Automatic annotation (TrEMBL):
Names of the cofactor(s): Zn(2+)
Protein name: DNA double-strand break repair Rad50 ATPase
The species this protein was found in: Sulfodiicoccus acidiphilus
Binding site for ATP: 32-38, 132
Chain's gene name: rad50
Cofactor binding comment, as recorded: Binds 1 zinc ion per homodimer.
Source taxonomy: Archaea, Thermoproteota, Thermoprotei, Sulfolobales, Sulfolobaceae
One Pfam family per UniProt: Rad50_zn_hook
Function summary: Part of the Rad50/Mre11 complex, which is involved in the early steps of DNA double-strand break (DSB) repair. The complex may facilitate opening of the processed DNA ends to aid in the recruitment of HerA and NurA. Rad50 controls the balance between DNA end bridging and DNA resection via ATP-dependent structural rearrangements of the Rad50/Mre11 complex.
Length: 867
């Protein structure tokens, strides 16, 4: 796994920095405080979310609230990207594989990194991730790293008094105690099951006897209940029939008394017949009353006919006057209708004429508005330069912009050359002429280069100012050209619209000229029509006053006169028939008739009532005979019913007691069966108790032996010896790439204290502290890479932060060679340094500067070969 790039957003002094790495040696250079080490801090933060200083909040650039770090890595064709947010409150971290998310939380991303690299943070920082000035710390911390890699601390925890093995032993002891108690419980349940089976057998026998007796009692009880129900049915019928007989006797007595009273109130039949004949004689008053009413009706009808005749004659007089007036108005009304017909024919042309007149007024208004707009646009365009002039000036300014950009690029290249020359002045040869340098020559070259840099800076400021003004002027002219183009388009649109308005005016004027005679004629006819409209309206109101209507009303008058004469003749005839009979005489006869009719109706009702009472008495006597016969045929005695009721009560009480006994026996037996079922189920569960006891005792003994074996020093010693052999192998395979002049190296374990020995070809060993500075650095790097190989084969990079700190000049020179040789062991090295000597070992140089915020200014000698 190698690192492709790291992006820092608001991280420490970096606002938005992207650092790309290549394979080989990547040297990050810059002055102290430029933000070089921040790149290393960002890589470690991206991998394990570990802040290099204080809390996560202290990693944020001043004045910002949010930031992030993105780290890209690759292995063959597979790319991985880690995104970490600079926040401790629900960070939205992300780990992607080939741009597909695989983890979305802070913990998930950290776990995913451990799975990819096959190491955790402690192993990484102890091996391939070297902090400032701590390359050789690996010699002192070798024992801790080995303990961590072998997880020896976990073995000690495993066998400790409070460790998991002892905890498991205690659990097995507790389970064993429970299993033994379960065996005791099994024996108790077996004895209880035998007792319950005996009790259940006895209870079943008692239940059978009780159920048999209960069935016999219920059979006898059913027979007596049927007999009781039969007698109760007869009792109810007996009571009902007795009540009916008493009721009928009472009713017959009441009817006979009422019949005797009615017969006493009736007169003789002769008196009733005389009263009926009197009613028939008095009934003739109705005919007299009808004739008298007809006479009154004829009088009323005659009065009505006289009134109608007078009204009709008045109407006839008025109608004759209105008919004469209608004849006078008829000629002018006909003239009005002819005018209306002519106006209707001309109405379409007149409406078209008025529509065209209104449209012409609108067009004249539009003509004024459009002309004013065109004049305003023309005036505004005259005050502005032409479109060609603006385009020409823009073209000239763009040429000047290109010239300024080219000159700035030249200045940028020139400045870099001067800076490179300044960096080489510290050597022994002149970078210009190639002659040896003395101090005076160095000062002169440095002064000349710095003066030239100042001149370049001043010229750059002038060119940037002119370039900014040129670009601003181009934008201003482009806006002005755009405005001129818009105004020209608006002017052309206004002129085209004006031409259309004028053309439409001419067309409407021609149409109005053709329609004008018809419009004038329409107006003349309209004036005459208004004059005749009142006469025509009056003529219409008199439309019902025709000669035919006059003749019709005359015929109605004649018909009414004939009806009136006929009415008077009928009145005379009835008057002679009545012979002086008046209403008072008729009313007197009606009173006598009502009195006689009332007496006759009352007597007929009494006679009918007497007949009905006689029939009712006969009916009730027949019903009484039937009920008495039914009562005699019942064959029922109340004493027998009482005896049957007493026997039913006795049997019900016996049934109740037997039911209680039966239910009790059944409940007891069911409870015994339920308990037997529970005992059987529990016994089935307890069948494995003996096996559990045996198994748990074996497990306890095995755990005891395992704790004893792990607690001895043999396993720990074996693991350390095996790990030392593997580390020796990796260390010697790595260190040979540095050509240190030793035959081999060995890791020595002295009672838990680890050290490294170097063996000369004569097999004499040398302690690491006796090696030269360069040899120790090379050996420390080799040891770190060997430990990394032991932990994981996935790491293809090594990071060193300021490795030259605390090194003298000779050791720094040796470090350059070591870094060059390290590439053959680890494909990618990232070295952060302020020492320019290490640039000579670099395949990719990354310069970091800080002008208020850190940024990557330059890459050399070659661009990164992958994004």
């Amino acid at each position: 796994m190698k690192i492709a790039s790291v992006k820092l957003v608001n991280f420490l002094s970096h606002e938005d920095t992207l650092v790309r790495f290549s394979e080989g040696v990547n040297v990050i250079v810059g002055q102290n405080g430029a933000g070089k080490s921040s790149v290393v801090d960002a890589i470690l933060f991206a991998l394990f979310r570990t802040p290099s200083r204080g809390g996560i909040g202290e990693l944020l650039r001043r004045g910002t609230r949010r930031g992030l770090v993105e780290l890209s890595m690759f292995e063959g064709d597979v790319t991985y990207k880690v995104r970490r947010e600079l926040t401790s409150n629900n960070p939205q971290d992300l780990l992607m594989r080939n741009n597909e998310p695989i983890h979305r939380s802070a913990r998930g991303v950290t776990a995913g990194i451990r799975d990819l690299l096959k190491v955790d943070e402690n192993v990484l920082t102890s091996t391939v991730f070297v902090r400032q000035g701590r390359i050789e710390d690996v010699f002192d911390s070798l024992g801790e790293v080995m303990t961590f890699l072998l997880r020896l601390d976990r073995i000690e925890k495993l066998v400790s008094t409070n460790g998991p093995i002892r905890a498991l032993q205690q659990k097995v002891e507790a389970d064993l105690k429970i299993a033994e108690e379960r065996m005791k419980r099994r024996e108790e349940l077996t004895r209880r099951r035998k007792d319950l089976e005996v009790q259940l057998s006895k209870g079943e026998e008692e239940l059978m006897v009780s159920e048999s007796e209960l069935r016999e009692v219920r059979r006898t009880l059913d027979d007596y209940r049927k007999k009781r129900d039969t007698l109760l049915g007869l009792q109810s019928k007996y009571v009902t029939l007795s009540s009916d007989v008493e009721r009928l006797l009472k009713k017959i007595s009441e009817l006979e008394v009422e019949l005797s009273e009615v017969k006493t109130s009736l007169p003789s039949d002769e008196k009733i017949e005389a009263l009926r004949r009197k009613v028939e004689e008095l009934s003739k008053v109705n005919e007299l009353k009808l004739k008298l009413q007809n006479f009154k009706n004829l009088e009323d009808a005659g009065s009505t006919l006289s009134s109608q005749l007078r009204t009709l004659k008045t109407q006839l007089s008025n109608l004759e006057v209105r008919a004469a007036r209608r004849v006078q108005l008829e000629a002018k009304a006909r003239q009005y209708e002819e005018l209306r017909e002519a106006l209707n024919k001309l109405n379409g042309e007149y409406m078209e004429y008025t529509r065209l007149e209104a449209a012409l007024k609108q067009l004249e208004e539009k003509e004024k508005t459009t002309s004013a707009v065109a004049e305003r646009l023309s005036t505004e365009l005259e005050s502005m330069p032409g479109e060609r002039e603006i385009s020409s000036e823009i073209s000239n300014l763009r040429e000047r912009e290109s010239e300024l950009s080219s000159e700035l690029k030249y200045l940028y290249t020139k400045r870099n050359e001067l800076k490179e020359r300044l960096s080489k002045i510290r050597g022994e040869v002149c970078p210009v002429c190639g002659r040896p340098l003395d101090e005076e020559h160095k000062r002169r070259l440095k002064s000349e280069a710095e003066d030239e840099l100042l001149s370049l800076d001043a010229r750059e400021v002038e060119l940037n100012d002119e370039l900014s003004w040129t670009r601003a002027r181009v934008k201003e002219l482009e806006k002005q050209r755009e405005k001129v183009s818009v105004l020209l388009n608006q002017l052309q649109s206004s002129k085209a619209e004006l031409e259309l308005v004028l053309k439409r005016k001419r067309e409407i004027s021609d149409q109005m000229e053709k329609l004008e005679p018809l419009a004038k004629k329409f107006e003349e006819l309209s004036s005459k029509e208004k004059e005749l409209r009142a006469i025509h309206d009056e003529f219409l109101r008199l439309s019902d006053s025709t000669e035919e209507e006059v003749q019709r009303v005359k015929r109605q008058v004649e018909a009414l006169e004939m009806k009136l004469r006929d009415n008077l003749a009928k009145q005379e005839g009835l008057k002679s028939e009545l012979q002086g009979i008046d209403e008072r005489y008729v009313e007197m006869m009606e009173r006598e008739l009502r009195n006689a009719q009332t007496q006759l109706d009352r007597l007929q009702e009494l006679k009918q009532r007497a007949y009905l009472l006689s029939q009712s008495v006969e009916d009730y006597r027949r019903q009484l005979e039937v009920k008495e016969e039914e009562l005699r045929s019942l064959n029922y005695t109340p004493l027998e019913l009482e005896k049957v009721k007493e026997e039913v009560a006795r049997l019900e009480e016996r049934e109740r007691k037997l039911t209680e006994v039966t239910f009790s026996l059944r409940g007891q037996n069911e409870e015994r069966r339920r308990e037997l079922g529970q005992i059987s189920e529990e016994l089935r569960n307890l069948e494995v108790a003996a096996e559990d006891v045996k198994r748990l005792r074996v497990a306890y003994e095995r755990l005891n032996r395992l704790r004893t074996v792990l607690g001895q020093s043999k396993l720990k010693g074996y693991l350390i010896t095996r790990a030392k052999d593997i580390l020796d192998y990796h260390l010697n395979s790595v260190v040979k790439e540095f050509n240190l002049g030793f035959s081999n190296f060995e890791v020595v374990n002295d009672d838990g204290k680890f050290s490294v020995r170097a063996y000369r070809p004569d097999r004499q060993w040398v302690d690491v502290r006796a090696l030269s500075g360069g040899e120790r650095v090379a050996l420390a790097i080799s040891l770190r890479l060997a430990l990394a190989r032991m932990a994981s084969q996935e790491i293809g990079f090594m990071v060193m932060d300021e490795p030259t700190i605390h090194l003298d000049e000779s050791r720094r020179s040796e470090l350059v060679d070591i870094v060059r040789n390290a590439v053959s062991i680890v494909p990618q090295l990232i070295v952060v340094t302020h020492d320019r000597e290490l640039e000579t070992a670099g395949d990719n140089i990354i310069e970091v500067v800080n002008d208020g915020r850190s940024k990557v200014l330059e890459r050399r000698p070659q661009e990164a070969r992958f994004e």
